[in-house]
Amino acid sequence: MQGKKLFLDKEVTRFRLSERVPPHNLYRRLAELVDWSFLYEETKALYSRTGQPSLDPVVFFKLVLVGRLENLVSDRRLVEHCALRLDILWFLGYEVDEELPWHSTISRTRQLFPAAVFERLFDHVFAQCVARGLVAGDRQAVDSAPVKANASLDRVCEKQPAGVHGPFLATGEPASTMPVVTAPAHLLRREAARQAKRRSEPGPLGAQHEKARLLSNKTHYSPTDPDARISIKPGKARALNYLCSLAVDTAKGVISHVQADFADSRDSLHLPQLLTGLQRRLRAHELRLRDVLADAGYANGRNYALLEAEQVTAWIPVFGQYKPEIAGFAYDPRRDAYTCAAGKDLPFHRYNVTADGDWVKLYWAAYSDCQQCPLKPTCVPGAKRKQLTKTIYDAAYRRAWQRQQTRRGQRLRRVRQSTVEPVFGNLLHHYGLRRMNVRGLAGAHKTMLLTAVAYNLKKLLKYRPQQHISLAMALPQPLLAAQTRAGRRNRCTEAPTRALAKWLLSNRTI
Protein backbone atom coordinates (compact mmCIF):
# COMPACT_ATOMS: atom_id res chain seq x y z
CA MET A 1 0.00 0.00 0.00
CA GLN A 2 1.28 3.46 -0.85
CA GLY A 3 2.28 5.50 2.17
CA LYS A 4 1.53 9.17 2.67
CA LYS A 5 3.15 11.32 5.38
CA LEU A 6 0.87 13.75 7.14
CA PHE A 7 2.33 16.78 8.96
CA LEU A 8 0.21 17.75 11.96
CA ASP A 9 2.47 20.51 13.36
CA LYS A 10 1.72 19.41 16.89
CA GLU A 11 3.30 20.79 20.02
CA VAL A 12 5.99 18.51 21.40
CA THR A 13 5.86 18.11 25.15
CA ARG A 14 9.11 16.17 25.62
CA PHE A 15 12.11 17.38 23.67
CA ARG A 16 15.77 17.60 24.72
CA LEU A 17 18.08 19.44 22.34
CA SER A 18 21.23 17.60 23.44
CA GLU A 19 19.70 14.28 22.37
CA ARG A 20 19.29 15.57 18.81
CA VAL A 21 23.00 16.45 18.38
CA PRO A 22 25.09 13.33 17.62
CA PRO A 23 28.50 12.86 19.26
CA HIS A 24 30.38 13.20 15.96
CA ASN A 25 28.81 16.60 15.17
CA LEU A 26 31.27 19.42 14.48
CA TYR A 27 29.87 21.82 17.07
CA ARG A 28 29.50 19.16 19.76
CA ARG A 29 33.16 18.24 19.36
CA LEU A 30 34.05 21.93 19.28
CA ALA A 31 32.22 22.60 22.56
CA GLU A 32 34.16 19.77 24.22
CA LEU A 33 37.48 20.87 22.73
CA VAL A 34 37.68 24.51 23.91
CA ASP A 35 37.19 25.88 27.41
CA TRP A 36 35.44 29.20 26.83
CA SER A 37 35.22 30.32 30.47
CA PHE A 38 38.39 32.44 30.29
CA LEU A 39 36.50 34.96 28.12
CA TYR A 40 34.44 36.09 31.13
CA GLU A 41 37.55 37.24 32.96
CA GLU A 42 39.02 38.86 29.83
CA THR A 43 35.90 40.98 29.22
CA LYS A 44 34.87 41.68 32.84
CA ALA A 45 36.43 45.15 32.94
CA LEU A 46 34.45 46.27 29.87
CA TYR A 47 31.05 46.08 31.59
CA SER A 48 29.36 48.14 34.28
CA ARG A 49 28.21 46.63 37.57
CA THR A 50 24.68 47.99 37.11
CA GLY A 51 22.14 47.98 34.32
CA GLN A 52 20.55 45.31 32.14
CA PRO A 53 22.48 42.10 31.43
CA SER A 54 24.33 42.25 28.13
CA LEU A 55 24.89 39.60 25.51
CA ASP A 56 26.96 36.78 27.00
CA PRO A 57 30.55 37.28 25.74
CA VAL A 58 30.96 33.52 25.26
CA VAL A 59 27.78 33.46 23.16
CA PHE A 60 29.09 36.40 21.11
CA PHE A 61 32.41 34.73 20.30
CA LYS A 62 30.67 31.46 19.49
CA LEU A 63 28.29 33.29 17.16
CA VAL A 64 31.00 35.08 15.20
CA LEU A 65 33.04 31.87 14.99
CA VAL A 66 30.00 30.09 13.55
CA GLY A 67 29.88 32.81 10.92
CA ARG A 68 33.48 32.04 9.95
CA LEU A 69 32.93 28.27 9.97
CA GLU A 70 29.72 28.56 7.92
CA ASN A 71 31.26 31.06 5.46
CA LEU A 72 28.72 33.75 6.33
CA VAL A 73 29.74 37.40 6.02
CA SER A 74 26.48 39.14 6.99
CA ASP A 75 25.34 39.26 10.62
CA ARG A 76 21.69 39.17 9.51
CA ARG A 77 22.22 35.95 7.58
CA LEU A 78 24.19 34.54 10.48
CA VAL A 79 21.29 34.95 12.93
CA GLU A 80 18.80 33.50 10.42
CA HIS A 81 21.07 30.53 9.73
CA CYS A 82 21.66 29.75 13.41
CA ALA A 83 17.91 29.77 14.16
CA LEU A 84 17.42 26.87 11.72
CA ARG A 85 20.21 24.62 13.03
CA LEU A 86 19.68 22.47 16.13
CA ASP A 87 23.38 21.73 16.56
CA ILE A 88 24.30 25.43 16.47
CA LEU A 89 21.54 26.27 18.97
CA TRP A 90 22.91 23.64 21.33
CA PHE A 91 26.45 24.97 20.79
CA LEU A 92 25.31 28.50 21.66
CA GLY A 93 23.29 27.32 24.69
CA TYR A 94 19.90 28.41 23.33
CA GLU A 95 16.64 26.46 23.45
CA VAL A 96 14.45 25.93 20.38
CA ASP A 97 11.86 28.43 21.61
CA GLU A 98 14.45 31.02 22.68
CA GLU A 99 15.15 34.09 20.55
CA LEU A 100 18.68 34.69 19.31
CA PRO A 101 20.34 38.11 19.70
CA TRP A 102 19.65 40.76 17.11
CA HIS A 103 22.24 41.36 14.43
CA SER A 104 22.75 44.93 15.68
CA THR A 105 23.66 43.57 19.12
CA ILE A 106 26.39 41.48 17.53
CA SER A 107 27.76 44.53 15.69
CA ARG A 108 27.79 46.71 18.81
CA THR A 109 29.46 44.00 20.88
CA ARG A 110 32.13 43.57 18.22
CA GLN A 111 32.91 47.28 18.46
CA LEU A 112 32.93 47.13 22.27
CA PHE A 113 35.59 44.44 22.59
CA PRO A 114 39.15 45.58 21.82
CA ALA A 115 41.45 43.65 19.54
CA ALA A 116 43.39 42.38 22.58
CA VAL A 117 40.46 40.10 23.53
CA PHE A 118 40.39 38.59 20.05
CA GLU A 119 44.15 38.07 20.20
CA ARG A 120 43.73 36.35 23.57
CA LEU A 121 41.29 33.90 21.97
CA PHE A 122 43.73 33.31 19.12
CA ASP A 123 46.55 32.62 21.61
CA HIS A 124 44.30 30.22 23.55
CA VAL A 125 43.55 28.13 20.46
CA PHE A 126 47.16 28.33 19.29
CA ALA A 127 48.32 26.98 22.66
CA GLN A 128 46.09 23.93 22.16
CA CYS A 129 47.61 23.40 18.73
CA VAL A 130 51.08 23.46 20.30
CA ALA A 131 49.99 21.04 23.04
CA ARG A 132 48.63 18.58 20.46
CA GLY A 133 51.89 18.64 18.48
CA LEU A 134 50.60 20.53 15.43
CA VAL A 135 53.20 23.31 15.66
CA ALA A 136 56.94 22.86 15.23
CA GLY A 137 57.75 26.58 15.30
CA ASP A 138 61.16 26.41 13.64
CA ARG A 139 60.00 27.18 10.09
CA GLN A 140 57.33 29.75 9.16
CA ALA A 141 55.93 30.67 5.73
CA VAL A 142 54.87 34.31 5.32
CA ASP A 143 52.60 35.86 2.71
CA SER A 144 49.89 38.50 2.27
CA ALA A 145 46.74 38.98 0.19
CA PRO A 146 44.24 41.83 -0.33
CA VAL A 147 40.77 41.58 1.20
CA LYS A 148 37.88 43.71 -0.06
CA ALA A 149 36.80 46.50 2.26
CA ASN A 150 33.20 47.31 3.15
CA ALA A 151 33.18 50.40 0.93
CA SER A 152 32.56 51.27 -2.71
CA LEU A 153 35.13 52.74 -5.07
CA ASP A 154 32.39 54.83 -6.71
CA ARG A 155 31.88 56.88 -3.54
CA VAL A 156 35.45 58.06 -2.97
CA CYS A 157 36.07 61.76 -2.35
CA GLU A 158 38.87 64.09 -3.32
CA LYS A 159 41.24 65.15 -0.60
CA GLN A 160 41.18 68.85 0.18
CA PRO A 161 44.17 71.06 0.95
CA ALA A 162 44.75 71.74 4.62
CA GLY A 163 42.31 74.40 5.84
CA VAL A 164 39.74 73.83 3.07
CA HIS A 165 36.41 72.17 3.91
CA GLY A 166 33.70 70.56 1.85
CA PRO A 167 34.74 67.29 0.19
CA PHE A 168 33.40 66.28 -3.17
CA LEU A 169 32.65 62.85 -4.56
CA ALA A 170 34.44 61.47 -7.59
CA THR A 171 31.29 62.31 -9.57
CA GLY A 172 31.52 65.99 -8.57
CA GLU A 173 28.63 65.94 -6.07
CA PRO A 174 29.13 67.70 -2.71
CA ALA A 175 29.40 65.54 0.40
CA SER A 176 29.21 68.03 3.24
CA THR A 177 28.08 65.48 5.84
CA MET A 178 31.11 63.24 5.30
CA PRO A 179 34.36 63.50 7.25
CA VAL A 180 37.03 65.66 5.66
CA VAL A 181 40.48 64.23 4.94
CA THR A 182 43.12 66.78 4.03
CA ALA A 183 46.57 66.56 2.48
CA PRO A 184 49.42 69.06 2.01
CA ALA A 185 48.65 71.42 -0.85
CA HIS A 186 52.03 71.00 -2.54
CA LEU A 187 51.60 67.21 -2.68
CA LEU A 188 48.16 67.61 -4.27
CA ARG A 189 49.53 70.05 -6.85
CA ARG A 190 52.40 67.72 -7.66
CA GLU A 191 50.06 64.74 -8.10
CA ALA A 192 47.68 66.78 -10.27
CA ALA A 193 50.54 67.87 -12.54
CA ARG A 194 51.79 64.30 -12.84
CA GLN A 195 48.36 62.98 -13.78
CA ALA A 196 47.82 65.81 -16.28
CA LYS A 197 51.10 64.92 -17.94
CA ARG A 198 50.15 61.26 -18.18
CA ARG A 199 46.74 62.19 -19.54
CA SER A 200 48.27 64.28 -22.30
CA GLU A 201 50.66 61.55 -23.45
CA PRO A 202 49.56 59.75 -26.64
CA GLY A 203 48.50 56.17 -26.26
CA PRO A 204 45.51 53.89 -25.70
CA LEU A 205 45.33 54.69 -21.96
CA GLY A 206 44.62 58.38 -22.42
CA ALA A 207 40.90 58.36 -23.19
CA GLN A 208 39.85 54.83 -22.20
CA HIS A 209 41.07 54.66 -18.61
CA GLU A 210 41.04 58.31 -17.62
CA LYS A 211 38.82 57.85 -14.57
CA ALA A 212 40.74 54.88 -13.26
CA ARG A 213 44.04 56.72 -13.50
CA LEU A 214 42.64 59.70 -11.59
CA LEU A 215 41.79 57.59 -8.53
CA SER A 216 44.80 57.48 -6.26
CA ASN A 217 45.41 57.23 -2.53
CA LYS A 218 47.32 60.52 -2.76
CA THR A 219 44.31 62.44 -4.02
CA HIS A 220 41.22 60.40 -2.98
CA TYR A 221 39.87 58.65 0.09
CA SER A 222 36.75 56.72 1.09
CA PRO A 223 34.43 58.66 3.45
CA THR A 224 32.70 55.39 4.33
CA ASP A 225 35.91 53.69 5.48
CA PRO A 226 38.88 56.10 5.58
CA ASP A 227 41.26 53.29 6.52
CA ALA A 228 40.56 51.39 3.28
CA ARG A 229 43.09 51.92 0.52
CA ILE A 230 42.87 51.76 -3.26
CA SER A 231 44.98 48.87 -4.50
CA ILE A 232 45.20 46.66 -7.53
CA LYS A 233 46.14 43.03 -7.98
CA PRO A 234 47.52 41.77 -11.32
CA GLY A 235 44.65 40.59 -13.47
CA LYS A 236 41.94 42.28 -11.36
CA ALA A 237 40.29 45.70 -11.21
CA ARG A 238 41.08 48.36 -8.66
CA ALA A 239 39.21 48.15 -5.37
CA LEU A 240 39.24 49.41 -1.80
CA ASN A 241 41.11 46.75 0.13
CA TYR A 242 42.88 45.80 3.31
CA LEU A 243 46.00 43.66 3.40
CA CYS A 244 45.95 40.39 5.34
CA SER A 245 49.42 39.21 6.40
CA LEU A 246 49.86 35.63 7.59
CA ALA A 247 52.53 33.42 9.10
CA VAL A 248 51.86 29.68 8.73
CA ASP A 249 53.79 26.89 10.42
CA THR A 250 55.06 24.46 7.80
CA ALA A 251 54.65 21.35 10.02
CA LYS A 252 50.84 20.99 9.84
CA GLY A 253 49.73 24.29 8.28
CA VAL A 254 48.58 26.01 11.50
CA ILE A 255 48.30 29.81 11.36
CA SER A 256 50.76 31.21 13.88
CA HIS A 257 50.22 34.94 13.30
CA VAL A 258 47.78 37.20 11.44
CA GLN A 259 47.50 40.97 11.16
CA ALA A 260 45.66 43.61 9.12
CA ASP A 261 47.67 46.27 7.27
CA PHE A 262 47.01 49.09 4.85
CA ALA A 263 46.74 47.85 1.29
CA ASP A 264 48.72 50.68 -0.35
CA SER A 265 52.08 49.78 1.25
CA ARG A 266 54.70 47.26 0.26
CA ASP A 267 54.72 43.79 1.79
CA SER A 268 58.31 44.24 2.94
CA LEU A 269 57.34 47.10 5.28
CA HIS A 270 55.07 44.84 7.36
CA LEU A 271 57.60 42.08 8.07
CA PRO A 272 59.17 43.71 11.20
CA GLN A 273 55.78 44.00 12.94
CA LEU A 274 54.82 40.49 11.86
CA LEU A 275 58.14 39.12 13.13
CA THR A 276 57.70 40.82 16.51
CA GLY A 277 54.26 39.30 17.11
CA LEU A 278 55.33 35.90 15.81
CA GLN A 279 58.45 35.76 18.01
CA ARG A 280 56.44 36.76 21.08
CA ARG A 281 53.93 33.96 20.53
CA LEU A 282 56.54 31.30 19.81
CA ARG A 283 58.72 32.25 22.77
CA ALA A 284 55.72 32.02 25.07
CA HIS A 285 55.61 28.31 24.18
CA GLU A 286 59.42 27.88 24.24
CA LEU A 287 59.62 27.45 20.48
CA ARG A 288 62.52 28.86 18.51
CA LEU A 289 62.14 30.35 15.04
CA ARG A 290 64.94 29.32 12.71
CA ASP A 291 63.73 29.85 9.11
CA VAL A 292 61.38 32.36 7.48
CA LEU A 293 60.03 31.57 4.02
CA ALA A 294 58.60 34.42 1.92
CA ASP A 295 58.30 35.58 -1.67
CA ALA A 296 60.25 38.35 -3.38
CA GLY A 297 57.79 40.99 -2.17
CA TYR A 298 59.47 40.79 1.26
CA ALA A 299 62.99 41.24 -0.16
CA ASN A 300 64.41 44.21 1.67
CA GLY A 301 67.84 44.97 3.04
CA ARG A 302 66.48 45.92 6.45
CA ASN A 303 64.50 42.68 6.60
CA TYR A 304 67.58 40.61 5.80
CA ALA A 305 69.59 42.44 8.46
CA LEU A 306 66.75 42.18 11.01
CA LEU A 307 66.38 38.43 10.53
CA GLU A 308 70.14 37.91 10.78
CA ALA A 309 70.18 39.92 14.01
CA GLU A 310 67.46 37.62 15.36
CA GLN A 311 69.52 34.60 14.26
CA VAL A 312 66.83 33.59 11.77
CA THR A 313 67.68 32.39 8.28
CA ALA A 314 65.81 34.37 5.61
CA TRP A 315 64.74 32.22 2.65
CA ILE A 316 63.48 35.21 0.70
CA PRO A 317 64.35 35.47 -3.02
CA VAL A 318 66.32 38.59 -3.80
CA PHE A 319 64.40 41.13 -5.88
CA GLY A 320 65.18 41.05 -9.60
CA GLN A 321 66.80 44.52 -9.66
CA TYR A 322 69.61 43.43 -7.33
CA LYS A 323 72.80 42.29 -9.03
CA PRO A 324 75.73 40.94 -7.02
CA GLU A 325 78.13 42.35 -9.61
CA ILE A 326 77.72 45.38 -11.92
CA ALA A 327 78.94 44.48 -15.40
CA GLY A 328 81.75 46.71 -16.63
CA PHE A 329 82.50 48.24 -13.22
CA ALA A 330 85.06 47.09 -10.66
CA TYR A 331 84.56 47.88 -6.98
CA ASP A 332 87.40 48.78 -4.65
CA PRO A 333 86.28 48.29 -1.00
CA ARG A 334 89.34 50.08 0.36
CA ARG A 335 88.50 53.35 -1.41
CA ASP A 336 84.74 52.65 -1.51
CA ALA A 337 84.65 53.55 -5.20
CA TYR A 338 83.87 51.99 -8.58
CA THR A 339 86.03 52.09 -11.68
CA CYS A 340 84.46 52.05 -15.16
CA ALA A 341 85.78 50.41 -18.32
CA ALA A 342 87.43 53.69 -19.35
CA GLY A 343 89.41 53.83 -16.11
CA LYS A 344 87.42 56.68 -14.52
CA ASP A 345 86.48 56.63 -10.85
CA LEU A 346 82.93 56.74 -9.47
CA PRO A 347 83.43 57.62 -5.77
CA PHE A 348 80.79 57.50 -3.06
CA HIS A 349 78.89 60.78 -2.61
CA ARG A 350 75.81 60.40 -0.40
CA TYR A 351 73.03 58.17 0.92
CA ASN A 352 69.47 57.97 -0.35
CA VAL A 353 66.21 56.26 0.75
CA THR A 354 64.16 54.12 -1.65
CA ALA A 355 60.35 53.78 -1.77
CA ASP A 356 60.36 50.76 0.57
CA GLY A 357 62.58 52.48 3.14
CA ASP A 358 65.86 50.86 2.09
CA TRP A 359 69.05 52.95 2.39
CA VAL A 360 71.32 52.99 -0.66
CA LYS A 361 74.69 54.55 -1.43
CA LEU A 362 75.05 56.73 -4.52
CA TYR A 363 78.19 56.71 -6.67
CA TRP A 364 78.68 58.91 -9.71
CA ALA A 365 81.45 60.03 -12.01
CA ALA A 366 82.57 63.56 -12.66
CA TYR A 367 80.64 65.50 -15.28
CA SER A 368 83.76 66.24 -17.33
CA ASP A 369 84.86 62.60 -17.34
CA CYS A 370 81.56 61.39 -18.85
CA GLN A 371 81.25 64.22 -21.40
CA GLN A 372 84.68 63.51 -22.90
CA CYS A 373 84.41 59.69 -22.70
CA PRO A 374 84.07 57.84 -26.06
CA LEU A 375 81.83 55.20 -24.34
CA LYS A 376 79.14 57.73 -23.34
CA PRO A 377 76.74 56.92 -26.26
CA THR A 378 76.48 53.33 -25.04
CA CYS A 379 77.04 53.84 -21.29
CA VAL A 380 74.79 56.84 -20.48
CA PRO A 381 73.08 57.93 -23.71
CA GLY A 382 70.37 60.05 -22.06
CA ALA A 383 72.11 61.30 -18.91
CA LYS A 384 74.83 63.79 -18.14
CA ARG A 385 76.91 61.39 -16.07
CA LYS A 386 76.97 57.78 -14.91
CA GLN A 387 75.42 57.03 -11.53
CA LEU A 388 75.43 53.72 -9.61
CA THR A 389 73.48 52.69 -6.53
CA LYS A 390 74.48 50.13 -3.94
CA THR A 391 72.49 49.11 -0.90
CA ILE A 392 74.09 49.46 2.51
CA TYR A 393 72.93 45.89 3.20
CA ASP A 394 74.91 44.49 0.29
CA ALA A 395 76.49 41.73 2.42
CA ALA A 396 73.09 40.51 3.64
CA TYR A 397 71.72 40.69 0.08
CA ARG A 398 74.65 38.65 -1.20
CA ARG A 399 74.17 35.92 1.41
CA ALA A 400 70.45 35.72 0.62
CA TRP A 401 71.19 35.58 -3.10
CA GLN A 402 73.64 32.71 -2.56
CA ARG A 403 71.10 30.79 -0.46
CA GLN A 404 68.41 30.99 -3.11
CA GLN A 405 70.76 29.45 -5.69
CA THR A 406 71.16 26.25 -3.64
CA ARG A 407 69.00 23.15 -3.98
CA ARG A 408 67.62 23.71 -0.49
CA GLY A 409 66.58 27.21 -1.45
CA GLN A 410 64.65 25.90 -4.47
CA ARG A 411 63.01 23.21 -2.35
CA LEU A 412 61.95 25.66 0.38
CA ARG A 413 60.45 27.92 -2.27
CA ARG A 414 58.11 25.05 -3.23
CA VAL A 415 57.43 24.38 0.46
CA ARG A 416 56.31 27.98 0.93
CA GLN A 417 53.99 27.81 -2.06
CA SER A 418 52.40 24.56 -0.90
CA THR A 419 51.99 25.81 2.69
CA VAL A 420 50.75 29.39 2.84
CA GLU A 421 49.00 29.82 -0.52
CA PRO A 422 46.41 27.02 0.09
CA VAL A 423 45.69 28.59 3.49
CA PHE A 424 44.84 31.91 1.84
CA GLY A 425 42.63 30.12 -0.67
CA ASN A 426 40.67 28.46 2.14
CA LEU A 427 40.29 31.66 4.16
CA LEU A 428 39.05 33.68 1.20
CA HIS A 429 36.63 31.12 -0.23
CA HIS A 430 35.51 28.97 2.73
CA TYR A 431 35.89 31.08 5.88
CA GLY A 432 34.16 34.34 4.95
CA LEU A 433 37.25 36.46 4.34
CA ARG A 434 36.31 37.35 0.76
CA ARG A 435 34.90 40.67 1.97
CA MET A 436 34.92 42.66 5.21
CA ASN A 437 31.63 43.16 7.06
CA VAL A 438 33.16 45.82 9.33
CA ARG A 439 34.93 49.14 8.80
CA GLY A 440 38.21 50.45 10.07
CA LEU A 441 41.64 48.86 10.44
CA ALA A 442 40.88 47.66 13.98
CA GLY A 443 37.70 45.94 12.84
CA ALA A 444 39.52 44.31 9.95
CA HIS A 445 42.15 43.01 12.37
CA LYS A 446 39.45 41.47 14.59
CA THR A 447 37.82 39.77 11.61
CA MET A 448 41.11 38.31 10.43
CA LEU A 449 41.86 37.01 13.92
CA LEU A 450 38.46 35.29 14.10
CA THR A 451 39.00 33.74 10.68
CA ALA A 452 42.39 32.39 11.74
CA VAL A 453 40.87 31.01 14.98
CA ALA A 454 38.19 29.16 13.00
CA TYR A 455 40.82 27.73 10.65
CA ASN A 456 43.02 26.51 13.52
CA LEU A 457 40.00 24.96 15.27
CA LYS A 458 39.23 22.97 12.15
CA LYS A 459 42.87 21.81 12.15
CA LEU A 460 42.51 20.68 15.76
CA LEU A 461 39.32 18.73 15.08
CA LYS A 462 40.74 16.99 12.02
CA TYR A 463 44.10 16.08 13.54
CA ARG A 464 44.57 12.39 14.34
CA PRO A 465 48.07 11.47 15.56
CA GLN A 466 49.43 8.36 13.89
CA GLN A 467 50.63 5.76 16.39
CA HIS A 468 52.67 2.93 14.93
CA ILE A 469 53.11 -0.19 17.07
CA SER A 470 56.05 -2.33 16.01
CA LEU A 471 55.91 -6.09 16.73
CA ALA A 472 59.23 -6.99 15.10
CA MET A 473 61.54 -9.21 17.17
CA ALA A 474 65.23 -9.78 16.53
CA LEU A 475 66.11 -13.48 16.29
CA PRO A 476 69.55 -14.98 16.90
CA GLN A 477 71.46 -15.71 13.70
CA PRO A 478 71.62 -19.59 14.02
CA LEU A 479 67.87 -19.84 14.77
CA LEU A 480 67.07 -17.56 11.85
CA ALA A 481 69.16 -19.69 9.47
CA ALA A 482 67.49 -22.90 10.70
CA GLN A 483 64.02 -21.45 10.12
CA THR A 484 65.02 -20.38 6.62
CA ARG A 485 66.22 -23.90 5.70
CA ALA A 486 63.03 -25.46 7.15
CA GLY A 487 60.90 -23.11 5.08
CA ARG A 488 62.72 -24.08 1.91
CA ARG A 489 62.19 -27.82 2.60
CA ASN A 490 58.50 -27.29 3.24
CA ARG A 491 58.07 -25.47 -0.06
CA CYS A 492 59.91 -28.28 -1.93
CA THR A 493 57.78 -31.07 -0.41
CA GLU A 494 54.48 -29.17 -0.68
CA ALA A 495 54.82 -28.47 -4.40
CA PRO A 496 54.40 -32.11 -5.69
CA THR A 497 51.56 -32.69 -3.20
CA ARG A 498 49.63 -29.70 -4.50
CA ALA A 499 50.19 -30.78 -8.11
CA LEU A 500 48.93 -34.34 -7.40
CA ALA A 501 45.81 -33.06 -5.66
CA LYS A 502 45.06 -30.74 -8.57
CA TRP A 503 45.40 -33.66 -11.10
CA LEU A 504 43.08 -35.94 -9.06
CA LEU A 505 40.41 -33.23 -8.86
CA SER A 506 40.53 -32.55 -12.58
CA ASN A 507 40.30 -36.32 -13.57
CA ARG A 508 37.75 -37.56 -11.10
CA THR A 509 34.62 -39.32 -12.44
CA ILE A 510 31.06 -39.25 -11.14
From TrEMBL:
| Pfam families the record matches | DDE_Tnp_1_6, DUF772
**Domain called Transposase InsH N-terminal: residue spans:** 16-111
User: Which InterPro entries does the record match to this protein?
Assistant: IS1182_transpos (IPR047629), Tnp_DDE_dom (IPR025668), Transposase_InsH_N (IPR008490)
List, for all copies, the residue spans of the domain called Transposase DDE: 339-461
Q: Which domain of life is it from?
A: Bacteria
Listed name of the protein = IS1182 family transposase
